[in-house]
Amino acid sequence: MISDIAWADGSFVRCDEMSLSPATHSLSYGTSVFEGIRSYGGNIFKCEDHVERLRRSADVFGHTVPYSNADLTNLCYELLKVNKLADAYIKFLVFYDDSDVSFKAQGCSSKVVAIALPFPSKSASEPYRLATATWRRAPASCHPYQAKTSSTYALSYLSYHQKAVGYDDVIFLSTTDTVCESSGSNVFFIKGDDLFTPTTDLALAGITRRVIIDDLCPRLNVSVTERDISYTELESFDGAFLCGTAMEITRISQIDEIRYKTSALVGALATEYHNLTNRRSAP
Ligand code: PMP
């Protein structure tokens, strides 16, 4: 359930007083971009990285975001304050208005809005069971995977609903049978004490993924390799996990018929991540 007050193009507004034209360009043509950000105890984790990614996503679709990263960061804190939230998920959306009903968006203005919802930090969670998605990820030349655009999630939606029974999520493969990511998280595999993760050619360059590679692995003295991982290789791994802003670090217990055991390394990474996100620091 989203909180009562949203931020829209410079002002705080009650969500129940907002409206959207049915001719909104981005509703028809998938030209909106968004960002999901977490606050832990009132401290927003990696806020600068998220607002910077929002800007890069917006740039891909030619959106204008007339606010500095500092403005966007400040409004995130204001949004938490007006909604009296400490542990929260903040979602930005940038979309084209209704000035052009054709796909060209000629004369359309970009709208920038943000909402928040209560989102408690989980210290432990049930492992995820994944099924491979019925839809494949198109080659990198066919889709802007580094923009967090709504159109990427159309296949997440379709695939999840086609394979949801008995599974928690889907994992996407490329047209050459390499592993990409889940519907909304990056993925890592474990062999011995080493981690392996797909490159970001066909996956979002996740901020949590980066934290794992740059901060957590060096702390735990774990090596990590970014490379293509084929589907046939999956049964050779000892363990696996998903990671993302909402997902945090969640162990994978199964992909199709392949089972993965509990892993001390996933537990150690999840603890380090929890300590990092819940660390008290100035905004
Ligand atoms: N891949 C996809 C498709 C996602 O939606 C997300 C969530 N933003 C991620 C990966 C993980 O990214 P992050 O760690 O930046 O949340």
TrEMBL record:
Sorted UniProt keywords: Aminotransferase, Pyridoxal phosphate, Transferase
Gene Ontology molecular function, alphabetical: transaminase activity
Alphabetical list of InterPro entries matching this protein: Aminotrans_IV (IPR001544), Aminotrans_IV_CS (IPR018300), Aminotransferase-like (IPR036038), BCAT-like_C (IPR043132), BCAT-like_N (IPR043131), Class-IV_PLP-Dep_Aminotrnsfr (IPR050571)
UniProt xrefs under Pfam families: Aminotran_4
Entry keyword Transferase: yes
Cofactor(s) essential for the protein: pyridoxal 5'-phosphate
Source species, domain of life: Bacteria
Family of the protein in this entry: Belongs to the class-IV pyridoxal-phosphate-dependent aminotransferase family.
PANTHER family per record: AMINO-ACID AMINOTRANSFERASE, AMINODEOXYCHORISMATE LYASE
Protein name, per record: Aminotransferase class IV
Organism: Rhodococcus tibetensis
